[in-house]
Amino acid sequence: MSRTSPAEHAARVARLLAPALAGRRTERVLVADLLAAARQAAVLPPRVLARDARAIVALPGFDNSQMDGFAVRAADLTAATPAAPVRLPVGPAVPAGTAPAPLAPGTAAPVMTGAPIPPGADAVVRIEDADPPGFGAGPGGGVTVTSAAFARPVAAGTYVRTAGSDVSASAVVVAAETTLGPAQLGALVAAGVADVEVWAPPHVLLLSTGSELVPAGRPLGPAQVFDANGAALTAALAQVGCRVTARVVPDDPAALLSALHETQDADLVLTTGGVSAGAYEVVRSTLDDAWFGPVAMQPGGPQGLGTVAVRPAGNGDADPARIVPLVAFPGNPVSALVSFELFLRPVLARATGTVPATRPARRAPLAEPVDSPPALLQVRRGRLDDDGRVRLVGGPGSHLLAHLAAATVLVHVPPGVARLEAGTAVDIWEIS
């Protein structure tokens, strides 16, 4: 069987998932709940607006001062010059958070940054441009100056933030399809938006297949191993904003089919194991409508994709089946994680608004030679040394999960070469 190129397989996965990811449901969430999630998470969970969010109040909500200074009527300073400054009596101060009285003609009012502009005032003179260049506050604070001189005219609107100059009430404050980050959450709160409609996180049914597998936290039996794939891929999926239901499934077709019907609202079924050429490949032998074949890469050669019909267990044909995309990875832990990075992470990250959607990539020289199968893309694990060179971590084996855990980059050795010498520049993806 001819091998599929990694680029071709990545494109096929993207096409398979596109309808399900585009058609997933939306949900309304409280902005306060998004803030609570941000406080609890080391990284803000990615959420994408499904509809425009419109401001409840204008930003700013009132004319306010851009500077600490004096609110004035520009017409009162028309004749001011350095030789003949205009001196105005100073009225009550306007701290932030207070509603000022109207400014009488021929007077100035001390105004603080962000405080409302008094009615009648139309400009602000910075405190450092007035005489005295301060408010004369005493030990207890406040304003003690009774008059101030101004040596120059001021244009109306100077240092005044006008109401609605950022966004007007009922206008779009954050547009649909925008990922909600720090600035967007701040804008929503400032504009009085209480709840927003967002795309629901993609729900992934993650099935680790293998009779030898034991979920984390349970005791091992003879010839059993812990389910590393379930743990690693659950975390990887969560990092790109997915909701995960994870199960361990033995090498039994009935158990696999039962697990497929267990979760009815999954947007994607992701399996690990059971796709190679062995005698107990439960995914490959049970899901005979899917495609299974080799991809020209190491690790992660055996791959599968297709669709599964998900119907409530025990309900017969009463309800129509949902057709859900299936992506099948090999079972070795490094193979599964490398497959996720190459084929699934970019698609899911774009759908959920994860930033950046693709791993940071660049080229760096090898610190040591590397041998590679000429017909395959070899993905090795590595770290950058103090000189910016790539040092490999462990060998090419697909079982070396601890070495992957110690790596900070994935090293892409391209097909068509059997050996790269030290100093050769290679493509790397930063995964730390």
From TrEMBL:
Keyword Nuclease: no
Catalytic activity: adenylyl-molybdopterin + molybdate = Mo-molybdopterin + AMP + H(+)
Enzyme class name: transferase
Organism the protein comes from: Xylanimonas cellulosilytica (strain DSM 15894 / JCM 12276 / CECT 5975 / KCTC 9989 / LMG 20990 / NBRC 107835 / XIL07)
Database matches in CDD domains: MoeA
GO-annotated molecular function: metal ion binding; molybdopterin molybdotransferase activity
One BP annotation, GO: Mo-molybdopterin cofactor biosynthetic process
Record-annotated MoaB/Mog domain positions: 205-350
Function summary: Catalyzes the insertion of molybdate into adenylated molybdopterin with the concomitant release of AMP.
Protein name (Swiss-Prot/TrEMBL): Molybdopterin molybdenumtransferase
Pathway connected to this protein: Cofactor biosynthesis; molybdopterin biosynthesis
Cofactor: Mg(2+)
GO CC terms, sorted: cytosol
Keywords: Magnesium, Metal-binding, Molybdenum, Molybdenum cofactor biosynthesis, Transferase
Similarity comment text for this entry: Belongs to the MoeA family.
Enzyme Commission (EC) number: 2.10.1.1
